[in-house]
């Protein structure tokens, strides 16, 4: 059986695909294969790991060590627990939005397909967890503090390189997510941009509005 992945592009259902490799260069083809073949257990694992990665990034950007008297171990363990839960919640809500807004653009994807597609799009975010290994090894508590750690020039290069790689992963995640939703809904990437960014901007403006009201 042949599956249409993009206009003029077909792939056999039996073709084996390694999503960790092909997602970077053939996102629509990879997402179609995973929607047809992946087990939902892998989906939940990806979502939890992505949530952990995002929460650790938030803790780092918030300079958590400077605000809370605690150890780096507690921050990491708390990030793992809260990140997994928060990841599932945000994924569920965002998938619901991608599904419902996509319907306005004549999308045909089911909610399960949207949830699967958006989960596998998290691969760059999940892989960015690896970058925490050298960051924590070099910076220690400095990874969660505004006070810079004393590091050697070589360690500084490693930290800068890690930051650049994380930025690339973040940008590529957005590209993959747009392609993933487009494939799940079976419409163009332009319609997918609207489907992805409308809820994103809406949430952003609601957060800004809430902060202004609270102040």
From TrEMBL:
Q: Where are the transmembrane segments?
A: 40-60, 72-93, 114-134, 154-181, 193-214
Q: How does it sit in the membrane?
A: Multi-pass membrane protein
Specify whether Transmembrane helix is a keyword of the entry. yes
Keyword entries, A-Z: Membrane, Transmembrane, Transmembrane helix
Pfam families from the xrefs? Yip1
User: Where the protein is mainly located, per its record?
Assistant: membrane
Task: Tell me where on the tree of life, at the top rank, the source sits.
Answer: Bacteria
Q: Which InterPro entries match?
A: Yip1_dom
In this protein, which residues make up the domain named Yip1?
Answer: 23-208
Where is this protein found?
Membrane
**This protein is called what?**
YIP1 family protein
Organism of origin is Bacillus seohaeanensis
